[in-house]
Known about the structure:
Chain B is of the alpha/beta class. Chain B contains 15 helices and eight strands. Chain B is globular.
Amino acid sequence: xxxxxxxxxxxxxxxxxxxxxxxxxxxxxxxxxxxxxxxxxxxxxxxxxxxxxxxxxxxxxxxxxxxxxxxxxxxxxxxxxxxxxxxxxxxxxxxxxxxxxxxxxxxxxxxxxxxxxxxxxxxxxxxxxxxxxxxxxxxxxxxxxxxxxxxxxxxxxxxxxxxxxxxxxxxxxxxxxxxxxxxxxxxxxxxxxxxxxxxxxxxxxxxx
Amino acid sequence: xxxxxxxxxxxxxxxxxxxxxxxxxxxxxxxxxxxxxxxxxxxxxxxxxxxxxxxxxxxxxxxxxxxxxxxxxxxxxxxxxxxxxxxxxxxxxxxxxxxxxxxxxxxxxxxxxxxxxxxxxxxxxxxxxxxxxxxxxxxxxxxxxxxxxxxxxxxxxxxxxxxxxxxxxxxxxxxxxxxxxxxxxxxxxxxxxxxxxxxxxxxxxxxxxxxxxxxxxxxxxxxxxxxxxxxxxxxxxxxxxxxxxxxxxxxxxxxxx
Amino acid sequence: xxxxxxxxxxxxxxxxxxxxxxxxxxxxxxxxxxxxxxxxxxxxxxxxxxxxxxxxxxxxxxxxxxxxxxxxxxxxxxxxxxxxxxxxxxxxxxxxxxxxxxxxxxxxxxxxxxxxxxxxxxxxxxxxxxxxxxxxxxxxxxxxxxxxxxxxxxxxxxxxxxxxxxxxxxxxxxxxxxxxxxxxxxxxxxxxxxxxxxxxxxxxxxxxxxxxxxxxxxxxxxxxxxxxxxxxxxxxxxxxxxxxxxxxxxxxxxxxxxxxxxxxxxxxxxxxxxxxxxxxxxxxxxxxxxxxxxxxxxxxxxxxxxxxxxxxxxxxxxxxxxxxxxxxxxxxxxxxxxxxxxxxxxxxxxxxxxxxxxxxxxxxxxxxxxxxxxxxxxxxxxxxxxxxxxxxxxxxxxxxxxxxxxxxxxxxxxxxxxxxxxxxxxxxxxxxxxxxxxxxxxxxxxxxxxxxxxxxxxxxxxxxxxxxxxxxxxxxx
Lengths: 208, 257, 477
């Protein structure tokens, strides 16, 4: 017997005599929150949760996104940023050098000051944004190596609960769930921001 | 109401005052207490030490002895927990389904003292008088196995003269754990040290609880420290009245001479 | 019992990995209890995490329903484990990944070592993983001339300190900031000599230390928190970003996963991603969770391997009561609430799985005889059961395993005699009175019961037992 057959045979033997399986009852836990996606109170909650874990939040009109991004990057002293190829061109910040990701090597990405992406969905209750590597979010690595991440979220992407986010996401895509900047609780179990991932996270919440 | 006393082997042998207090309290409240004399031990020590096969005969005895009674009370959360959560398991493990269902029936009619008073008899003011500063330790099996919740505290709050002080980190185990206290004596002692520190911080005269076993552990530690704090079973406080506060009773129930 | 028949459930082999300690729990605990610094560190850390976790769990209106859902999903998973693993294998393979099966630690270590060699690498970077610690992968890699680099901050602290992990989630929980600073100053080349013990400064030092490794290492090894049978997605839940580095930067990614980590459906993630962070780090959500399904062209590792590990899990599954230990999602909530763990720390448990879950999982993976003292390393206080996000009844399991443990002969004789006596009320009454008389000898007990009287007095024997009082005062006859 090869290892595969051995393991499966062992597990089947272990279950021999067990009662036949019955379908799992659906359970009483919430599949969605009380408020529909994009509800203003949900966006407020998302802002509160993000801020609580030291992300910086900017609430702006859709038309002001580019200026807001430019302001964040300038204030942070970022000279060059990477953007995914599908980022709306109107969001590209004017005053800094914008490098469109074209399979850039990791060393090059690590040398850039920041990254600007969109998001796939955001979870208000947990203060989480999820990237699914779509064209406006790019490869996973571009939002990892630069030390500053600016992420733009539209209200219709904001859901209340984790199950709603899971339901919206496409299985099979590479996903990155981000809740605040890189952090660790490894020293005396206190949360400290800033280890290997971006140490600063700015979330731009648009009005439409 | 006719109530059968499940005395527990520990209270019977080493802490009869807790059992006698249970009898006096229920009689004072107008109930008839009976003591089925063929009872011995629920078998919890055997089960928890890894001897469920040996416990089987004790489970069978317990179910047989208490089967005739509509209401059974024990001055112990731990022993009630064993009856509720272990007896049927021990029977099923031995393949005795009939005993398992009998044990479940008995368990359904078995109450810890504070449960009986509050849930079954519907009383929180039992007419007790106990002029002492008291702190309450919720024993693990009362708290998490049978979930008596705040029933003991509701009873204590109605006791006249009693100054109830909250125990810091009350929900932490005292470190008794039956044979744990012997097999892991060092760890048990470390847990006890913290429990005693919290008891002493309350500046209470008396530490009470619903289990004689945990009180034996805490009281044994306090006695070794000569800390001046006594352990008294909840039943003894609830049974105390102005009339029992005689010199002799004060010596036994109270703290310092 | 150790069974080696092919195809029959088997415990984890001896001589490899880290499931067995060198000494019994009471002996190891005794040493730990004497370390005042360790106890202060543990008390501080567990008190902190209990408060944090309690606060964020309090925000969730359906926490108990989520726990029940977690338990139901895991029970269903165990009942269908072989089918779900085959489904997972097909999904991962279909997405361009390669699935390997390992009956035990030896096989798993060989598979990983061969894959690293085939990739032409002499160094791998690792995301914190209980499974690879369990099987002793680092030692196996080193023996093959391959350098494993732990990238999780706590694992790095442990590795640099030539130490052993003592907590599932926070392996360096036994170290405080001052001790961590000393380790970094001693072991990190190029570290700033002015390094302070501020946690932020320590984290920044780790960032600088590992950055070059992340950018230049071609093979990474990870574990997995969840694997979705339905879609083939694997998930790693982390905080620092070291996981993201390892999961996206290398050319080759090797994930070693215990077979019990599979979950049936994509939607099930919605339950576990709520339970895990709040129960473990006490956060609403951990900073980073990565999910990948086989190979994504142009994004991340293009060689993706999954090693499915038995190493004793089939033996656990074979025990109808014990199999709930396989439901564990490694959150470590049970450690953080355990009064025993808080005082002894993780090393006393001997195995990589410490605390209450370790006391039930390790003996089952190895066979109870090889970890016979662990089921007794608990006062059965029940705090672990209340804290467990998937409702594993750890106290019930501890008692169950005690019945399988080898018993000291003298204890077994005494227990049988006690049960016999207690089943004969007349004998019992005689024994009760003898117990009272025996106490006249004084307030101390002979060995082995002197463990009691070393620190506690015995109660004074009462003048009469309750049943004596009853027959004199109440008995109708």
